[in-house]
From TrEMBL:
GO molecular function: ATP binding
Highest rank taxon of the organism: Bacteria
Domain ABC transporter: 22-261
Stated name of the protein: Phosphate ABC transporter ATP-binding protein PstB
Record-linked InterPro entries: AAA+_ATPase (IPR003593), ABC_transporter-like_ATP-bd (IPR003439), ABC_transporter-like_CS (IPR017871), P-loop_NTPase (IPR027417), PstB-like (IPR005670)
Length: 275
């Protein structure tokens, strides 16, 4: 079922005039009987970069994968509450998860080009979706948007795996945007990259937000403070049986999270006292 392209009828909590594109309401995430994430209320603004920070095991990646239903592929996964896109429930039984993933793309921590040519990495999704336009133009446009065209234009037939790690990650970003999503999710996209490649990806993110909404999970505090417009800090709490679940502590403009947080736990984390 196609999505209804509706404008959200609510307002973003710290920026009243900013349109929210993704929203969670009292979201609980379970794997089997184990609670992984509890009570998350969050509005993601359109055409901004929103960062998720927090210690390992606090549910950042779990939440990210809720937005394009990748968690559906994990046995026992279920949610309570609501996770919506333009106010439409992403988990409505009428919604096709494949269509969700076309509109909400994903870039993973480790670059994962297909074992195909650079050209075919970009063209693959378009072919699957029966793209009717000019594939050559699509490939060039996607690579240009990912700031990779000038580096690979003379070797489009070369295997994508022959590129450097940073180039592979930008190829994966180009592949994600080639199917024309509205949102790009990034799960620690720079974790395995060197500083120069990390800088290029961060610069690319700033360019991409002109056309896309970006949500990024990162453990790098400097990256979050440099790159994100808004930042959500998550923490984890232990249960009586020794298991842990994540929860949202604080969400605000990035400058407020890092310079004037309202919660003591946020201050301790961004100042390096724990985590």
């Amino acid at each position: 079922m196609p999505f209804d392209r509706q404008t959200a009828n609510h307002q973003y909590q710290t920026e009243p005039q900013t349109e929210a594109i993704l929203r969670t309401e009292n979201l609980n995430v379970y794997y089997g009987e184990t609670l992984a994430l509890k009570g998350v209320n969050l509005n993601i603004p359109k055409k901004q970069i929103t960062g998720f920070i927090g210690p390992s095991g606090c549910g950042k990646s779990t939440l990210l994968r809720c937005f394009n239903r990748l968690n559906d592929l994990i046995s026992g996964f279920r949610i309570q509450g609501k996770c919506s896109y333009y106010n439409q429930d992403l988990y409505d039984k009428k919604i096709d998860p494949v269509e969700v993933r076309r509109r909400i793309g994903m870039v993973f921590q480790k670059p994962n080009p297909f074992p195909k040519s650079i050209y075919d990495n970009i063209a693959y999704g378009a072919r699957v979706n029966r793209y009717k336009g000019n594939l050559d133009e699509l490939v060039e446009t996607s690579l240009r948007r990912a700031a990779l065209w000038d580096e690979v234009k003379d070797k489009l037939k070369s295997n994508g795996l022959s590129l450097s790690g940073g180039q592979q990650q930008r190829l994966c970003i180009a592949r994600a945007i080639a199917i024309n999503p509205e949102i790009v999710l990034m799960d620690e996209p720079c974790a395995s990259l060197d500083p120069i490649s990390t800088m290029k990806v961060e610069e690319l993110m700033q360019e991409l937000k002109e056309n896309y909404t970006i949500v990024i999970v990162t453990h790098n505090m400097q990256q979050a403070s440099r790159s994100c417009d808004y930042t959500a800090f998550f923490n984890a709490q232990a249960t009586e049986d020794g298991k842990r679940f994540g929860y949202l502590v604080e969400y605000d403009k990035t400058e407020n999270i890092f310079q004037n947080p309202q919660q003591e736990a946020t201050l301790e984390y961004v100042s390096g006292r724990f985590g």
